[in-house]
Specification:
alpha/beta, 7 helices, 3-stranded antiparallel beta sheet, 7-stranded parallel beta sheet, binds fructose -6-phosphate, Rossmann fold
């Protein structure tokens, strides 16, 4: 795993956006896996800037989001579809029909999950997957204890995750109890992974993910088995890492 510790959130976000932009320029029809939450917002802002100021062209790009709450319609301002439209898709020239978010309102959720996996395959798989990390080490909504081989499915959210995410809702009671999420096995099939973490609250999880044992109790630790992962943190989230990591990547060229 390539680990890069940046001084600030802005530098972390800029580097992640540069890596994505490089892929988009090299492979205009690429498939990008996207995350929601606070962490990637700076990366999305920088991609929007690059689209507006540097003509970064998303017209052929296809995206697949990691997860969606069960029971929230796309019009709900806390649904992940709404988040993606608001934080990225509405501001770039991507075609909405090329943006996939799991369907948390599907009548037959297992069938919708299977279809989601099929759509990813039909598009040739994910070229680069952007991830955040939960304070408990989760990736997407694969909470500790998730099968490291899991596929897209419904998961019950941990109370810790519901508490973390209650900042976006009026109260914790409004935070959905279930989510549809790509599985860890699904994420591991991406050709490249960029995992981002900022703030002190992520330092322990990042240390466990990067330098700890590979265990289902820290789902992000499975990324140690992936051949092309770049972990980018700000200084606070990198504070508990013991290794001596650079502030610059070996190369910006995607493998
Ligand atoms: C979001 C997702 C989650 C978040 C994680 C961190 O699509 O899959 O795993 O990446 O919960 O959330 P933030 O960035 O809000 O700290």
């Amino acid at each position: 795993m390539e680990v890069i510790v940046k001084e600030t959130y802005e530098e972390m976000s800029r580097l992640a956006a540069q890596m994505v932009a490089e892929l988009v320029r090299k492979k205009p029809r690429c498939v990008i896996g996207l995350a929601t939450g606070s962490t990637p917002v700076g990366t999305y802002k920088e991609l929007i800037r690059m689209h507006k100021e540097e003509d970064l062209d998303f017209s052929q790009v296809v995206t697949f989001n990691l997860d969606e709450y069960v029971g929230l319609p796309p019009t709900h301002d806390q649904s992940y579809r709404y988040f993606m439209n608001d934080n990225l898709f509405n501001h770039i020239n991507i075609r909405k029909e090329n943006t996939y978010v799991p369907d948390g309102m599907a009548r037959d959720i297992p069938a919708a999950c299977a279809l989601y996996e099929e759509r990813i395959r039909e598009h040739g798989g994910v070229d680069v997957q952007i991830l955040g990390i939960g304070g408990n080490g989760h990736i997407a909504f694969n909470e500790p204890g998730s099968s490291l081989a899991s596929r897209t499915r419904v998961k019950t959210l941990d109370e810790a995750t519901r508490k973390d995410n209650s900042r976006f809702f009026d109260s914790i009671d409004q935070v959905p109890k279930y989510a549809v999420t790509m599985g860890i096995g699904t994420i591991m099939e991406a050709r490249q992974v960029i995992i981002l973490a900022n703030k002190e609250s992520k330092a322990a999880a990042m240390a466990a993910a990067v330098e700890g044992p590979i265990t289902a109790m820290c789902p992000a630790s499975v990324l140690q088995m992936h051949p092309t992962v770049t972990a980018i943190t700000d200084k606070a989230a990198g504070a508990k890492l013991k290794g001596d990591y650079p502030a610059e990547p070996h190369t910006l060229v995607l493998k």
